[in-house]
Every structure is written in C-alpha cells, then in structure tokens.
Amino acid sequence: MSRPKRKRLVTHPPLMEGFKPFGVPIADLEPVFLLYEEYEAIRLLDYQGLTQFEAGKEMGVSRPTLTRIYEKARSSIARAFVEGKAIFIEGGDFHSDEFWYRCESCFKVLISDHDLS
Hints:
This protein has helices spanning about 35-45, 50-60, 65-85, and strands at about 10, 20, 30-35, 85-90, 95, 100, 110. It has about 120 residues and is an alpha/beta fold. The protein has a three-stranded mixed β-sheet with strand order 2-4-3. A hairpin with a 6-residue loop joins strand 6 and strand 7 (about 110). The mean pLDDT is about 85.
C-alpha cells in the first residue's frame, strides 16, 4: 500500500481563472487544466526564480515531487500554446493558510487569514 499523497502548500492564488487565445470564442476552445499546485510551481520557479529545492521546501514537498509537478505544468502550458487551447486553473491536491474569495462583481481575488462566512 502506498503512502497518502501530501497536500501541496499554495500561498498565492492566481489572479485569473485562466487564459484563452485571442480571437476565438471560449465556447469553441478545448480546455487544458492547470492545477493550483502546478501554477504555484511555475510561479515559484519561473516568476520568482527559486531553485527547485527552495520551491519544494516552500510548497512542502520534496525536490523530485516538485520536479514532477513542474514538468506536468510546463507540458500543459506548451500543449495549450501549440494547439491553441484555453488554460483553466483549477483543482488539485493543495492547501492554503489563507481563505481565497473571488469578488462576484469585479472578479478580483481577495485573501483573508480567516473565514468570512
């Protein structure tokens, strides 16, 4: 029996729910799904410039696990670019120390350290 999968720590939610190619209605596009932990790996490694060891530590996973997450993210993004697909950022096996809310009128992501409900 394999050990349970450790949830990845995601500290910054994406500002958007995804991306789509210009000039094509969203209804005509096939989606590619990018998990929240894959987005976080791209953010930490490519945007912040952390090493894989540092990024793995930040997400609470080993470096080899971080590498697998990152490789899957890069593959998904490349597939969307080359094949002209929409990218939706959702789901995954993660946790966060904050609560995320998306405003229903402006769609901005709001972050709180406690549940507002």
